[in-house]
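Private note to self, pasted from the team thread so I don't lose it. Backbone tokens:
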């Protein structure tokens, strides 16, 4: 099987490939997917609207990154939201002339890139643009914008929804990260999508049988991820909690925190791995599209307490790799922590479950799908053995 996948990959790599991403101004799950694309296709060139090396993962510093005209505009790298009306224009002006395959990683604008007429555009669409659809009301309340822009936002976002829906028609085919995202894509864009779970770099996360000294949570500290609920719960429990990551909610969270809660700020992958190994378990209070951090914790053999909606339903197995709480409330999180019984979990079995989301699994499924979309003769001759009907998910 692996030999056949490598043969398909070799054929795809003969093409001139462009990787397109919304913007590189943070370090989140979508950026890890872009990194995986670069690893799979090392000769591909990367295009983004804005690139801020200081806030992106160090991995990207060694890559050739093409940026849009916005990249050098005042404050764009630190306050890209201020240029919201221009981001669709910026992505449409990325010059992809001469490329045969466009592989975009999009949570917002990259899906709207204009591909050459003869090129194939495959989009890994993480979710419909959150601030235009699922999270539009909260976005208006949370965004720090100059008054002139803020007052115009309701009208502006309406106009951007029209563009966003049209942009979602541009990819030839769509891949997404979970059944949850697939349903959202169908609901908002009327497009079908193939589910390929994102890669989790579990090779550098070692299994730990250590009982743990604290509970762990982390990621981008933004409002919709509901970290305030965890912090409140642990302030009331007076129990040890470590929160890693940074974001606009950090100051607010520190004010809510109890004496036994610590914040690490931005940390390296190595330090994050060490935190997983010495944790009691990981807490995931938000509705995630997928939830890479939860799988990372499971790779270390740690159970996950998660809100039982969204991507968690595809990554956490209740009573085997973790536990669901029913409501997004600090009281429910506290109750789940109290009910947690470490003797109910086998770290090795938790780790084995996490291995199903490995980079190798992601690469194999992605290569098969791209090969099918391109109609490669080599792939077609082995289609039944490799994948069956690549559109099977579309027909159920």
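Design output:
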């Amino acid at each position: 099987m692996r030999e056949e996948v490598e043969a398909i990959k070799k054929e795809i790599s003969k093409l001139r490939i462009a990787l397109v991403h919304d913007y590189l101004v943070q370090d989140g799950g979508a950026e890890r997917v872009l990194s995986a694309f670069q690893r799979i296709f090392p000769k591909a060139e990367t295009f983004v609207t804005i690139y801020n090396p200081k806030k992106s993962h160090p991995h990207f510093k060694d890559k050739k990154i093409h940026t849009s005209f916005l990249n050098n505009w005042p404050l764009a790298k630190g306050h890209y939201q201020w240029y919201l009306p221009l981001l669709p224009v910026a992505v449409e002006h990325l010059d992809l002339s001469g490329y045969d395959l466009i592989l975009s990683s999009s949570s917002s604008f990259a899906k709207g890139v204009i591909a050459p007429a003869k090129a194939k555009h495959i989009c890994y669409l993480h979710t419909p643009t959150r601030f235009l659809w699922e999270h539009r009301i909260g976005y208006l309340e949370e965004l720090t914008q100059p008054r002139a822009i803020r007052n115009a936002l309701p009208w502006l976002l309406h106009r951007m929804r029209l563009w966003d829906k049209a942009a979602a028609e541009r990819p030839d085919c769509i891949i997404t990260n979970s059944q949850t995202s697939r349903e959202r894509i169908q609901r908002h864009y009327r497009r079908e999508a193939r589910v390929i779970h994102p890669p989790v770099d579990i090779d550098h996360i070692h299994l730990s049988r250590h009982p743990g000294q604290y509970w762990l949570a982390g990621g981008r500290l933004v409002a919709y991820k509901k970290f305030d609920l965890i912090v409140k719960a642990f302030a009331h429990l007076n129990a040890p909690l470590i929160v890693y990551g940074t974001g606009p909610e950090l100051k607010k969270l520190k004010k809510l925190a109890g004496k036994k809660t610590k914040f690490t700020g931005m940390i390296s992958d190595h330090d994050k791995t060490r935190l997983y190994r010495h944790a009691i378990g990981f807490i995931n209070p938000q509705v995630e599209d997928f939830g890479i951090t939860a799988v990372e914790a499971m790779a270390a053999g740690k159970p996950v307490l998660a809100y039982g909606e969204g991507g968690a339903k595809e990554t956490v197995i209740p009573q085997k790799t973790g536990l669901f709480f029913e409501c997004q409330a600090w009281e429910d999180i506290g109750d789940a922590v109290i009910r947690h019984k470490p003797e109910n979990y086998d770290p090795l079995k938790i780790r084995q479950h996490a291995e199903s989301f490995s980079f190798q699994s992601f690469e194999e499924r992605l290569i098969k799908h791209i090969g099918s979309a391109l109609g490669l003769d080599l792939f077609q001759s082995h289609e039944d053995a490799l994948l069956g009907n690549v559109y099977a998910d579309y027909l159920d």
